[in-house]
Amino acid sequence: MKNNCIVYLSVVAAVFICTARTACTANEQHNDDWSIMWRQPTPTPVAIQVKQLGGLGKDLENRKWLMISTDCHQIYYQPSTDKKKVSEVYYLFDNVYEFLKGRSPAKLKTPIKAFLVPNEWGRSRCDRTCNAMRTGDQGDILFIITSLLHEETHLFNFAFLDDVPQGWWAGEFTCIYFQQRALWQAQEKNIKTEISSRLPNGPRCRLHEMDKRGKEVFDEALSALYFFEEKYGLKKSQRFRQACLEESKRTKGGPLPYSVFAEVFGMDIERLEQGWLQFYEWESPGKGEVLHLLSKEQREEKRQAEIAEREAPLLKGAKSAILKHDDGEVDKYHSYGGNRAQTVMFEAPAGEWYVYGISFYGSHYGGQHDFDAVNGDVCILDEGLRVISRTSFPYSLLTYKKAWIEVPTLATKVTGKFYVAIHAHSERYKGIYVGYDEDIDVSHSSLGSVSRKQFKLRPTPNKLEWMIRVKLAARPVYYE
């Protein structure tokens, strides 16, 4: 498996090895002669306008592009796109095709069009009818190449399936696995450790349930596909991919039968599932017992118990409480920029109480910045909307994976009604998503408008409850 590093685009590390050399006599002097060693010459682009791009968007058809060709691809970009980035895509892009050709039962016709859309981060998609894809030009080279790998996997699937639905295992599960593994491998990260960190409490469903849960269990599917390849080897992993595509064609994208797992891996799904759990050292039952995975309520109970154990030395026996309005089930997410802040009203219990922290369900986005150097703010306001404390927190507390985030705050005394606001300072290419619950009767949430003079509230676009919770203690709690 380790010999397949190039297959997973680790050639990114060698992108600086120049294939073109410039002859220079001893008498010829150049002010930039050192840079000659690291140049990556690309073909002269041609200006072109492309029509009939199907679902990729009319915005691509309504402008002229610069285009350069590789053996397998046509790369379209705008004059504003970083030329070094274009050069790196040019040198690496055909590796994507070679990788997928070796893992797919059907050959994808070339050339494949790829549009690097200016001033966008990600937002990738493809269209089989025009054999083309798009992604934003704002990511770094690893992000761009692995985003294109994701979309080209879909196109290879369509080459086999034509207009038949892909199904979850052959489609999005595999695309995410290829994209994320290629990225981690190029970053020289321990892939098993990265996967385990995304599922600290183990999987949320069983193997045979994944294609029924779909986008809810992307991390579980990623963990399973990595396990299959590492445990049973590349050939069986390729056979599983082909079997998934064949079943998608037969069932028109229906759920994967148990028999596919047994046929490919030579064992029933219960034994395969037990090996998957043991591979990641998740709790696994003894032989013959029924697999038991934690319910949503059990996971929340376990999470709160872990937090209580961790915070016990801080509280030193003080009475504590958690205020919340959400039901724990996230429905959607939103990010707000400028001076807007997701705000929730709470009411303190009778007696003397101090806020010592908040938790919210969310994630960060972006990548071309230092997450330790970019901050959001937690504002606590009294009933009259006067800010009584403000605590900054780094984006590095969050990850790209949406999860509960614990933010310690200044010890802040609260009485009666008060407000908690998360001012994320989000922008187009960096920011924070906060989850919200739509299954509510009464909303306590709003959008705050932060300014130096005053804090104003306005309604949210629809009735919702931001998934923001407050931690209270009966005495001030100070962090060392």
Concise account of the structure shown:
Helix content is 31%, strand content 24%. It has helices at 33-36, 58-61, 83-101, 141-161, 169-186, 191-198, 210-213, 218-251, 258-265, 269-279, 296-315; strands at 46-48, 65-69, 73-77, 112-117, 125-127, 132-136, 320-323, 332-334, 340-347, 353-366, 375-382, 387-394, 403-414, 417-423, 430-437, 445-450, 455-458, 465-466, 468-473.
Q: What top-tier CATH class of the largest domain fits best? A: Mainly Alpha
Derived structural class: alpha+beta
Major beta-sheet overview: 7 strands, antiparallel
β-strand percent reads: 15-25%
Please indicate the count of domains.
2
Compute the number of helices: 11
| Percent helix | 25-40%
Q: H/E series, N to C?
A: HEHEEHEEEHHHHHHHHEEEEEEEEEEEEE
Question: Uncertain segments of ≥5 residues (pLDDT<50)?
Answer: 1-7, 9-30, 285-291
CATH topology name of the largest domain, in short, is Neutral Protease, domain 2
Shape assignment: globular
Mean pLDDT: 86
Spatial separation of the terminal alpha carbons = 46 Å
Please tell me the CATH architecture of the largest domain by its name.
Orthogonal Bundle
The whole-angstrom Rg is 26 Å
Q: What is the total tally of β strands?
A: 19
Written overview of the protein:
With 480 residues, this protein is an alpha+beta fold. The chain has two domains: 2-279, Neutral Protease, domain 2 (Orthogonal Bundle); 318-473, Jelly Rolls (Sandwich). The chain is built from eleven helices and 19 strands. The strands form three sheets. Strands 7, 8, 10, 13, 15, 18 and 19 form a seven-stranded antiparallel beta sheet that branches. A six-stranded mixed beta sheet has the order 1-2-3-4-6-5, covered by helices on one side. A six-stranded antiparallel beta sheet has the order 12-11-14-9-16-17, with no helix packed on it. Helix 8 (218-251) packs across helix 9 (258-265). The longest helix is centred in the middle third of the chain and has 34 residues, at 218-251. It is globular and about 70 Å long. Residues 1-7, 9-30 and 285-291 have low confidence and may be disordered.
